[in-house]
Design goal:
This protein has 339 residues and is α/β, with parallel strands linked by helices. 33% of the residues lie in helices and 28% in strands. The protein contains 12 helices and 17 strands. It binds adenosine-5'-triphosphate.
């Protein structure tokens, strides 16, 4: 939980992001005004190619803004020498860094270089911080393993531990969950959110995982294809219709009832479903997958399904049938002749 009474860890005003080569200028978003508070876990969402990585790299000082100013801990970021910057902001990018032959401990130790220098030796504080970073991501058991031999999920934890070892106030992560399976993604989101809250880290993470962002983020930034950055609490953005506007396509509808997207292959036949709970939800999902729309009115429906306890009663015209599993209902739908 964050308090709004604190000073922001990072702010940017009148910020334009994009690319400029000679006279060639490509602005992805302009006049952005953002802030990250200490202890806040913010997820950055947006369709492919809108500029999420560009925004993260710009906020990290890895590329120049086209316009505007970034302030970290009250200082103008551009005027801070590189070594001091590295003590203020850590970054985890998607591109795998060349790692060569290195064990995980050596890799996490790299996070201490802004303090010890490239050839500096680690003191007790450095080693304490490295051990803390391993513990924070639940990776102590990996310390002696070769990084090249780790799984994607294990390596991701080590990369995050290296950023944590850097002991910064701001941490920016570009799609850190991209190659992880669902349990690992949930685990990582939980670890990062808890770290933000516990360590008072201002943490910004870009992701395509809308569902997890809705469940874990304190706030969302949603970057649209038009360069608009929508900011707010996850639930407020979900209810506002902004998701629908930013992500909807010809094949996808945002459904505020379920907080998820659903495909819509423009159904020409409809079905009515009566009933509640898990069986009704998955019956609906099955019918939508099979190309049916769901309607409220029986007179618009090609057939109706009444779910009662563990029974599905299906009515099509004067034909009636009762099934005791969703498999049987799906088989029935598939075996019917639909005009
Ligand atoms: N170095 C570069 N020079 C010029 N254009 C670039 C450069 N890097 C990225 N772009 C372009 O900027 C746009 C935004 O790219 P960016 O990687 O920031 O988007 P993104 O939202 O992170 O996308 P994704 O979700 O696919 O990762 C894209 O059109 C991309 O081709």
């Amino acid at each position: 939980m964050t308090s709004t009474a604190q000073n922001p860890a990072l702010t940017a005003g009148a910020l334009s992001i994009g690319y400029e080569q000679g006279a060639d200028k490509r602005c992805l978003a302009e006049d952005l005004s953002v802030s990250l508070m200490p202890g806040e876990f913010v997820c950055l969402l947006g369709p492919n190619g809108v500029g999420k990585s560009t925004l993260i790299r710009t906020l990290a000082g890895m590329q120049s803004p086209l316009a505007g100013q970034i302030q970290i801990a009250g200082k103008n970021f551009g005027s801070i020498p590189p070594r001091e910057r590295a003590r203020l902001v850590s970054v985890v990018l998607t591109e795998a860094a060349p790692i060569g032959l290195m064990d995980a401990y050596a890799m996490v130790s790299l996070g201490r270089h802004p303090y010890s220098g490239w050839f500096g030796s680690l003191d007790a504080h450095d080693r304490g911080r490295i051990e803390w970073a391993f513990e924070a991501v639940g990776a102590k058991h990996l310390a002696q393993r070769q990084v090249a031999e780790l799984s994607d999920g294990e390596r991701q934890k080590i990369t995050i531990a290296r950023a944590l070892a850097q002991e910064t106030q701001v941490m920016l992560l570009d799609e850190p969950t991209a190659f992880l399976d669902l349990p690992r993604r949930v685990e990582l989101m939980r670890i990062l959110r808890n770290l933000a809250h516990r360590e008072k880290l201002a943490l910004l993470l870009s992701t395509h995982d809308l569902d997890l962002a809705l469940r874990f983020a304190d706030r969302l930034w949603v970057l649209s294809g038009e360069g608009e950055l929508i900011q707010g609490y996850p639930e407020a953005i979900a209810m506002s219709g902004d998701f629908a506007r930013v992500f909807e396509s010809n094949n996808l509808d945002w459904d505020p009832q379920t907080g998820s997207f659903r495909t819509h292959p423009t159904p020409c036949l409809h079905a009515k479903i009566e009933g509640e709970g898990v069986a009704a939800l998955w019956t609906r999902r099955a019918l939508e997958r099979l190309g049916f729309g769901i309607c409220e009115d029986a007179s618009d429906a090609a057939f109706s399904i009444h779910i009662k306890g563990s029974a599905w009663q299906v009515t099509r015209g004067d034909q009636q049938a009762e099934f005791d599993s969703i498999d049987a209902v799906i088989d029935w739908v598939l075996n019917q002749k639909w005009a």
